[in-house]
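Researcher: Please translate sequence to structure tokens.
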Amino acid sequence: MHGTRHRTRTRSLLAASAVVAGLLVPAGLYTAGHVGAVGAAAPPAPDPEPSGAECRTAVHGSRVVAYCHNPYPSTDRVQLHTECARWWDIDADSEPVDVRPGRTVRLDDRCWKEVGAAWVTHSDETAKVP
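Model: Translation complete:
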């Protein structure tokens, strides 16, 4: 009788372990994103292609100079903006310039007196070449 009770307990423990494992494995696969069920983890979004020129701006007295270099395969459009320090001095925006792949452009502007701030903006729109 002692052997029968031992075998019954062993079988019960094995059956319970199999049931628990059968419940945990699908839950683990679901949370890991390996199951293609509705609501499963989506694949990571692809990184956007890097783009945009790198611009360095320097102020020398009343003059502003910006050099923009584009190391990427797409064209970037840049524009220099200059804000003068004096209230009566006219702020200025340069014409937008296309920076083609592998090229460097120079943008410059000036104030009558001191420069308050200068920055470069980027745009996806490029000029239409006739």
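Researcher: Any highlights?
Model: Residues 23 and 95 are 66 Å apart (CA to CA).
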